[in-house]
Amino acid sequence: MKRHVPLRLGMVGGGAGALIGNVHRIAARIDGEFQLVAGALSSTPEKAQQSAATLGIAEDRAYDNFEKMAETESAREDGIEVVAICTPNHLHGPASKAFLDRGIHVICDKPLTATMAQARELTEAAKSSGALFFLTHNYSGYPQIRLAREMVARGDLGKIRLVMVEYAQDWLTEPSDSKQAEWRSDPERAGAGGAIGDIGTHAFQLARFVTGMLPEKLAADLTAFVPGRKLDDNANVLMRYAGGAKGTLWCSQVAPGTENGLKLRVYGDKGGLEWAHEAPETLWFTPFGEAARKLRRGGPGTTDSAAESSRIPAGHPEGYLEGFANLYREAAAAIRAQQEGRPLPDPLLVPDLQDGLEGLHFIDACIRSDEADNGWVEVMP
Ligand SMILES: NC(=O)c1ccc[n+]([C@@H]2O[C@H](COP(=O)([O-])OP(=O)(O)OC[C@H]3O[C@@H](n4cnc5c(N)ncnc54)[C@H](O)[C@@H]3O)[C@@H](O)[C@H]2O)c1
Fold first, then answer.
1. For 378, which DSSP code?
2. How far apart are CA 211 and CA 85, in angstroms?
3. Ligand 1 atom nearest residue 136's Cα
4. Which residue intervals define the domain Gfo/Idh/MocA-like oxidoreductase N-terminal in the entry (predicted)?
5. With 90 as the cut, is the pLDDT of residue 52 above it?
6. Are residues 94 and 19 in the same domain?
């Protein structure tokens, strides 16, 4: 019997005190597809070494910076096959490029990069690398979101007319000097988008994933409500799609009482769908003129196609970590297919470079619109 060998994973960022690095580590482990063996985990060598020691990474594979890690790991016979990038945004581009240039697959957090120039460089690097690039817009990993996508594609809602998506948080309601708030309010490290880059891109990608539709134009009203804040903490965006559909996207980090309030509603001429991240195992389907249907995650073994994205029976809650892990599982399947010379899985649902580019264009369009007195601008000029 063939022994299952986890893919050798490295990590950049995600050291002690970091937010999302540990989520990546959990997601990578859930299905036994990855083993963390190397890291450049922090911005200072001392903290990078300490963090690596805590995670059981061998001393000679605990690096002070990602450049050294890419160089050394690519020269080792047992070097990493894939790396997770969990740093602030301004390093996504340079770090991803360093590994892609050496043929190492990349799983990077969003947004793609801090600037369009970095995105262009990264695109070139991905084109000339044999390695794959994935982006963790993790909300598209939920089973009921995959089901929603299928229902829209199948025409259960009819012709789509309205797309309403929102992502509201409250943690930046007042000035904050937390580690996470600090770089997120600095244009050099976050990029040009505040809330639009941090959570607006998630909302944008979720709507895009479920409907398959990319808005042609948008009009955005961006605000930094907290005095002195350099980047937006609230955005109201109108969207127009080819074919006449209309949309709204609201993202906010200054809405007291909201937590991670990501919510999507889609309405067609035959029916609607509603999903909220805070109750992710329920998808409401409202065929026009009929009783509303509450579609719950069925779990493995059920006929529901979303069952493929589930791990445990219905009634045992699955959530954020499992949804995140679905992207890791699909990235692993794609990497293994590529290593073994097989075609990549089709469809490949884990977000990729194109999703990242669309997200950056969304940020850019919001800023162009806001600067033009909230006028209509093309999303992908
Ligand atoms: N997908 C999601 O749901 C989600 C959620 C939160 C954050 N994120 C994204 O993840 C990324 C990190 O966000 P966070 O909240 O975890 O930030 P954080 O500030 O908590 O952690 C960033 C980590 O990067 C490290 N770092 C900084 N410079 C480095 C360098 N030169 N080399 C190596 N490591 C370095 C820091 O030391 C820290 O460990 C951001 O791009 C953010 O947009 C995604």
1. E
2. 28
3. 1
4. 8-136
5. yes
6. yes
Beta bridge partners of 276: 263
> Is 348 part of any domain?
no
**Tens-digit pLDDT profile for residues 126-144:** 999 999 999 999 999 999 9
Residues 172 and 230 in one domain: yes
Longest Cα–Cα distance of the chain, Å, equals 65
> Which atom, in ligand 1's list, is nearest to the CA of 92?
41
**216 and 80, same domain (yes or no):** no
Per-residue pLDDT band at 308 (split at 50, 70, 90): confident
pLDDT of residue 1: 84
Query: Domain residues for 48?
Result: 7-131
Average model confidence (pLDDT) across the chain: 97
Exposed, middle or buried by CB within 10 Å (0-12, 13-18, 19+), for 278? exposed
Nearest to 40 by CA among 32, 50, 30: 50
| pLDDT tens digits along 171-222 | 999 999 999 999 999 999 999 999 999 999 999 999 999 999 999 999 999 9
CA 177 to centroid of ligand 1, rounded, Å: 15
Count of structural domains, the chain: 2
Ligand 1 center to residue 64 CA distance, Å?
16
Which residues form the pocket of ligand 1, taking CB atoms under 6 Å from any ligand atom? 12-15, 18-21, 40, 42-43, 65-66, 86-89, 91, 109-110, 136, 138, 179-180, 183, 198
Q: Ligand 1: distance of its center to the CA of 87 in Å?
A: 3
CB 362 within 8 A of CB 64: no
CATH number of domain containing 370: 3.30.360.10
Query: Which atom of ligand 1 is least distant from the CA of 182?
Result: 19
The verdict on 222 and 274 lying in the same domain is yes
With cut-offs at 50, 70 and 90, classify the pLDDT of residue 304: confident
